[in-house]
Amino acid sequence: MAPANNNDRVERIAVVAAAQNGAIGKDGWMPWHLPEDLKRFKSLTIGKPMIMGRVTFEAIGKPLPGRTTIVVTRDRDWTFDHDRVVVCHDMADAITKADDIAIRDGVNAVIIAGGAQIYRLALPFTTRYELTEVHIDIDGDAFLDPLSPMEWRETARHRIQNPDGPDYSFVTLDRR
Ligand SMILES: NC(=O)c1ccc[n+]([C@@H]2O[C@H](COP(=O)([O-])OP(=O)(O)OC[C@H]3O[C@@H](n4cnc5c(N)ncnc54)[C@H](OP(=O)(O)O)[C@@H]3O)[C@@H](O)[C@H]2O)c1
Questions:
Q1: What atom in ligand 1 is closest to the CA of residue 41?
Q2: Given CA atoms 87, 93, 96, 100 in this order, what sign does their dihedral have?
C-alpha cells in the first residue's frame, strides 16, 4: 500500500532502537548504551529534518546539531526559541513541513525520531525503518508496535557483537 501523503522525492525514515519485546524506552530514556548505534543514528540523521514528540524533545533538552527538529505537541502555547526548531500540532502538518525542509535543504529524507506516540502517528507516512534490534528483553514503558512482514520487507541486516552489553542488529525494512 502506498504511504499517505506520498511524496516521491522524500523518504520518511523511522530510526528506532527496540528490544526483542518491542520496548524502546523506560522512565523517559533509553535503557541501554550502544556506542555503534549512536554513531549510526548520527550518520543516518545528520542534515535531515527530524520529527520528534514533545516528550522525547524535552528529554534531550535541545535540538541536535546540524538538524532541524519539528516538535509535535497538542499544546498551542508550547514554544522553543531556536531557529532550527519548528512546532506542529498534527502529524500531517509535521510531514508536510518536514518534506518542504528536506527539499529546501537538498536532502532526500525526513527522519521520524520517536518516541512511541510519534512512531505510531507517523506509521501511515513512513516508507522505511532503520531499526536497531537489541537482542534483549527489557522492562520498558514505551513500545514500538510490531511491524507486519506483510507490509515491511527486510532489505538489510548487520549484527554487532557488543562485549559490554547485549548484541544488536541494524535492520532496514522497506514498505512493500
Ligand atoms: N529507542 C528509541 O529509538 C527511542 C527514540 C525516541 C524516543 N524513545 C523513547 O520513547 C519514550 C517517549 O515516547 P512517548 O510516546 O512517551 O512520547 P513522544 O512520542 O516523544 O511524545 C509524545 C507527545 O507527542 C504529542 N502528541 C502525541 N499525539 C499527538 C497528536 N495526535 N497531535 C499532536 N501532538 C501529539 C504530545 O505532546 P504534548 O503532551 O505536548 O501535547 C505527546 O505527549 C522515551 O522513553 C524515549 O526515551 C526511544
A1: 3
A2: negative
Q: How far, in Å, CA of 55 to CA of 134, rounded?
A: 22
Q: Residues of 104-138 as b/e, b for ≥16 C-beta within 10 angstroms?
A: eeebebbbbbbbbebbebbbebbbbbbbbbbeeeb
* Structural domain spans, the chain: 11-175
Structurally, at CATH architecture level, domain 11-175 sits in 3-Layer(aba) Sandwich (3.40)
40 lines ligand 1 (CB under 6 A): no
Q: What is the pTM of this model?
A: 0.97
Please list, in sequence order, all residues whose beta carbon lies within 8 angstroms of the beta carbon of residue 59, skipping any fewer than 6 positions away: 28, 29
| Ligand 1 binding pocket includes 77 (Cβ within 6 Å) | no
Provide the residue-wise pLDDT of the chain in tens; the chain has 176 residues: 667 777 778 999 999 999 999 999 999 998 888 989 999 999 999 999 999 999 999 999 999 999 999 999 999 999 999 999 999 999 999 999 999 999 999 999 999 999 999 999 999 999 999 999 999 999 999 999 999 999 999 999 999 999 989 999 999 999 99
Instruction: Name the residue of 36, 37, 52, 56 whose CB sits within 8 Å of the most ligand 1 atoms, as the mutation to test its pocket.
Output: 56
| Residue 16 CA, closest ligand 1 atom number | 3
